[in-house]
Amino acid sequence: MSGIEQTETVAQAKTGPYALKKTVVMVGMMGAGKTAVGRALAARLGVPFLDSDAEIEAAANMTIPEIFQRDGEPFFRRKESQVIKRLLEEERGVLSTGGGAFLAEDNRRMISDKGISVWLKADLPVLWNRVRHKETRPLLQTRDPRGTLAGLYEARVPLYAQADLTVQSDGHAAIEQMVDRVLAALETRPDVLERK
What's the CA gap between 137 and 145, in Å, rounded? Predict the structure, then answer.
């Protein structure tokens, strides 16, 4: 391989073989893998990875559980909407959102207008297996966290089902396999993603 050919291969690997036209917004339940899959997808596409929860924590200089405890969920949801709006307007990339973000109709409309939503759909046993030992889930700080998760799941699934694309997460696929699944779904949308 000549030096020029090698340079072109490295350049293509950095930017990826795709052109992203809209921000890809990962939605779904806590534990679905939105952050892990979103980060890996952004790396594969060569675009920025954005995380609405991390942005909220940085702006507030507090963790999400601390914000919930001090200011309550309604305050958090307002801040979450503001952050998602800003991230959708500022930069094109892959955006991971908190589990409750897609529940608000305004957020769903905003995401649909400025990006494309991808629901990482995982069944309840998979989600419970992933979140049951985590202390960082304020909504699960109850006497019956599994029951709470089941209630959230039942209430939220019909709203997540309104996402533009659905990608099944069965709990067995590695992160890179999940990225392959998301890319396959995105490739059905030339208005969002096209091969260079």
Answer: 10
Q: What is the CATH number of domain 26-186?
A: 3.40.50.300
Nearest CA to 192 among 9, 41, 13, 3?
A: 41
| 19 sits in which H/E element | strand 18-20
Rounded Cα distance between 75 and 94, Å, is 25
**Using alpha carbons only, what angle is made at residue 136 by residues 135 and 140, rounded to the nearest 5 degrees?**
70
| Chain mean position to CA 78 | 18
Q: Domain spans of the chain?
A: 26-186
Rounded CA-CA distance 128/132 in Å is 5
In contact, 76 and 55? CB cutoff 8 Å: no
Q: What SS3 state is found at 153?
A: helix
**Tokens found for residue 184:** 């396959």
Q: In tens digits, what is the pLDDT along the chain, a chain of 196 residues? A: 444 444 333 333 345 688 999 999 999 998 899 999 999 999 999 999 999 999 999 988 998 889 988 998 899 999 999 999 999 999 899 999 988 899 999 999 999 999 999 999 999 999 988 888 777 676 677 788 888 889 999 999 999 999 999 999 887 789 999 999 999 999 999 999 988 7
